[in-house]
């Protein structure tokens, strides 16, 4: 099971180089499992026992399994994660010609760890909007091949490099795509039009706009002498999206189960399709009916917010509270912060801990050092918008927000197992 799940995650990461592709990958796997797409612009005829999913902006997805018990009887079992990861996004007018090289201007998306982006074989993926025969269309593209690189400056020219230096996001991050002949100019939109023809067989009149991210072409892999680790890009947080999907597809038909994978978490979730927007509330209100039914069902529900946690790095153990140091392959981590950066409380944490123990899943706890700042998740945001009881959990990882992150290869099994049990649990906290 471990090998199968890890290979499935590797395949999912490869197919999901952008939030748009991640959402498309999730939708494809849901449809194979018999889930039906609902259009927000049309009336819904959802029925008990039905399996549905909704997307917004092509980058956020909510999947719903309506059980035999009504939400008023048993509530909703929700698992939340996010589809976006820190990266380099192409600017609207990105063309740069410097010293005979063609480069693209980029903007840093989210809290990216920048140094690992240098000397990587980069490709480009995302969504392109274009005009064809007078009509507007959008398509996803993925160059797949390594087409760009951000070379480091040689140590001879930067003697302080190993003492650390501040990376200038404007001048030092533009990737190199090509070397130009004297007087040669390149048109980025023309390149995108050519890619649309290559991927989709489209002859477009004009490329109008785009949302494109650079990514590392090196595949995720299971590594270590005993294959203990999995390393790859976008583990934060596509690992949780994948685990939630596998658990949902394994759920029985008794309970009402929801998987929420939203965009823009890395920049605060405040968007039409983010956790701090109206998407989840609007979908649930349409499914649950009148105001009283909605409130009653929400108060019987529980959200598991699944987002990666910081494992104790052996070279930097002093960055952790001595009593709260999660280990890779030590199981899911309950994340606690009394200032509500995480939404866990004693009841929801107790429920999750009991669920883990009941199903033989190891469980850990994380509290940040009192003299360090604490990150956050979609947990507090969703809890405050819906009033739903929430537990924040995640798998321990190293190098969070790097271009390549590291997690335990046994932990995915642990997470899928406990989320599957959650989806099938007859009683909530």
Automatic annotation (TrEMBL):
Which E.C. number(s) belong to this protein?
3.4.11.-
| Ligand binding (Zn(2+)) | 82, 156, 401
Which protein are we looking at? Answer: Probable M18 family aminopeptidase 2
Mind listing the GO biological process terms from this record?
proteolysis
InterPro entries (alphabetical) = M18_aminopeptidase_2 (IPR022984), Peptidase_M18 (IPR001948), Peptidase_M18_dom2 (IPR023358)
Say which family it is in.
Answer: Belongs to the peptidase M18 family.
Q: Give the HAMAP family listed for this entry.
A: Aminopeptidase_M18_2
Q: Which organism is it from?
A: Pseudomonas linyingensis
UniProt keywords (A-Z) are: Aminopeptidase, Hydrolase, Metal-binding, Metalloprotease, Protease, Zinc
Q: Which domain of life is it from?
A: Bacteria
GO molecular function (one): zinc ion binding
């Amino acid at each position: 099971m471990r090998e199968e799940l890890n290979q499935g995650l590797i395949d999912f990461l490869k197919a999901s180089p952008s939030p748009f592709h991640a959402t498309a990958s999730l939708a494809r796997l849901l449809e194979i499992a018999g889930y039906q797409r609902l259009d927000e612009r049309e009336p819904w005829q959802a029925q008990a026992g039905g399996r549905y999913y909704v997307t917004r902006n092509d980058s956020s997805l909510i999947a719903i399994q309506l059980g035999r018990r009504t939400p008023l009887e048993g509530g909703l079992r929700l698992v939340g994660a996010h589809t976006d990861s820190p990266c380099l996004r192409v600017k609207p007018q990105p063309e740069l010609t410097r010293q005979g090289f063609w480069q693209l201007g980029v903007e840093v998306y989210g809290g990216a760890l920048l140094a690992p982006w240098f000397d990587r074989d980069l490709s480009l993926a995302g969504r392109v909007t274009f005009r064809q025969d007078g009509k507007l269309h959008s398509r996803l593209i993925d160059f797949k091949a390594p087409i760009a690189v951000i070379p480091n400056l040689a140590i001879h020219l930067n003697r302080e490099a190993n003492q650390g230096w501040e990376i200038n996001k404007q001048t030092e991050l533009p990737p190199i795509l090509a070397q130009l002949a004297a007087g040669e100019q390149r048109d980025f939109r023309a390149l995108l039009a050519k890619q649309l023809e290559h991927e989709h067989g489209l002859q477009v009149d004009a490329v109008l706009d785009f949302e494109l991210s650079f990514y590392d072409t090196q595949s995720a892999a299971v590594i270590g002498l005993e294959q203990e680790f999995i390393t790859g890009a976008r583990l934060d947080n596509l690992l949780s999206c994948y685990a939630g999907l596998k658990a949902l597809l394994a759920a029985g038909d008794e309970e009402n189960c929801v998987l929420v994978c939203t965009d823009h978490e890395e920049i605060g979730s405040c968007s039409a399709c983010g956790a701090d927007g109206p998407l989840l509330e609007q979908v649930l209100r349409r499914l649950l009916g009148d105001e009283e039914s909605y409130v009653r069902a929400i108060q019987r529900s529980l959200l598991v917010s699944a987002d990666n946690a910081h494992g104790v790095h052996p070279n930097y153990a002093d960055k952790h509270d001595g009593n709260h140091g999660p280990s890779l392959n030590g199981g899911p981590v309950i994340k606690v912060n009394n200032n509500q950066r995480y939404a866990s409380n004693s009841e929801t944490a107790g429920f999750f801990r009991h669920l883990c123990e009941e199903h033989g899943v190891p469980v850990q706890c994380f509290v940040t050092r009192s003299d360090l700042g604490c990150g956050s998740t979609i947990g507090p945001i969703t809890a405050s918008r819906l009033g739903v009881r929430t537990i924040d959990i995640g798998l321990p990882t190293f190098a969070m927000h790097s271009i390549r992150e590291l997690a335990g290869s046994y932990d995915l099994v642990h997470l899928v197992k406990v989320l599957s049990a959650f989806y099938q649990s007859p009683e909530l906290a």
